[in-house]
Each structure stands twice: as structure tokens, then as C-alpha cells.
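Morning F.,

Quick status update on the modeling queue. The single chain you submitted on Monday has been processed. Sequence for confirmation:
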Amino acid sequence: MQSFFSDTAHWHGYDGIPQRVLEHIEYASAALGIAALIALPIGLVTGHTGRGGNAVALVATAGRALPSFGLLVLLFVWLGLSTWPAMIPLVVLAIPPILVTTYEAVRTVDASPVDAARGMGMHPAKILFQVELPVALPLILSGLRSAAIQIVSTATIAAYVSLGGVGRYIVDGLYQRDYEKVVGGAALVAVLALLVLGLFWVAGRALVSPGVRRR
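C-alpha cells below.
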């Protein structure tokens, strides 16, 4: 692994580490953003109303059961060489943890402040965003964090359909029997996962109120 990172050829050009890491981050960020745009509103609304819990569980189970690699190959055959064959499996993988944790986070908010807000005549949308969401935010962030780590780890499959990312080092290394490259690619994935943990820790400190954090 040391020789992989010490080789200056791996730090320049289209196959250099900075370029591959940037591609990996782009895929992962786009997939997480799309999944969050789909799952967060559904989780918030179903958690607030208490309706649709069975549907949430069904979607989560179905999403977890789909094989990412098999779906990737199928979409590659249908759609051809583009970013979508790699993006769709990542989005499908990320939706269940975001959806389930958001739903459960809102459902498990203490009923006392919610009832007090209703008694004061607050609009349901204000109750959701001003009372329930601040309390549920730590668990919602944990769902986003889990989804992000899964995406970063699984985005290596993009390399199997000739796209970029650090998965190229793993796929190319296996093909070339260059195991230093394989281990180097795996190490980069691990580092990116640790960076995701750090970013969500910072987000939790910045977005979650101190009172909720202490609780």
C-alpha cells in the first residue's frame, strides 16, 4: 500500500488519486442528495401524521432486499454507459435508512410538547418544523450518516460499468493482479467513510441544540 501512495504517477492525470476521489465524492453526494429529497419529506409527513407506517416498512424492506450490483448491471444493459446506471442503485440503497429513521425519529418525539403546541393553536406544519423536527434531528442525522457511509462504500460499483471513482483502483487492480492498487483503493474508501463520520459529527454539533444533545 505504501508504494501505491508514494508513486507520483498516482497523483496526476485522469487516473490520479485527486481525480478519482473527486469523482467518488460527486457520485456519493449526488446519490445522497437525491435520496434525501425523496425520503426526508415522506418520513417527516408520515411520522407527523402517524399514517403510512406499514408502507414505510414495506419500502424499506424492498429497498434493502434489492441487490445493488445486480441492479447496476441490469440498468447498464437498459440505459447504456452513463452515470444513471450507477446512481440509481446508490439512491435505492440510501432511501431505506433515511426514510425509516426519519419516520421513527418524528414518531418517538415526546407527546407533551406536541400536545402543548396543539393546545396553543399552532398550525400542524409549525408543530412539525418548530417542535418535532428539532427534537428528532439527532436521529434523522444518524439515518443520513448511515446512508452516506453505505453510499461511499458501495459507490465502488460504478467502476464495474467503466465509470470513475476510487473503485477504479480496486477493479483495475484485480484485473491487473496489482494488489497494491487494490489495497490502496480500499484504503481510500475507508478514509472517505471516516471523513463522512467526521462531517456528520460536525453537523450534529452545529445543527442540534445543546439541550437536545445533552438529553
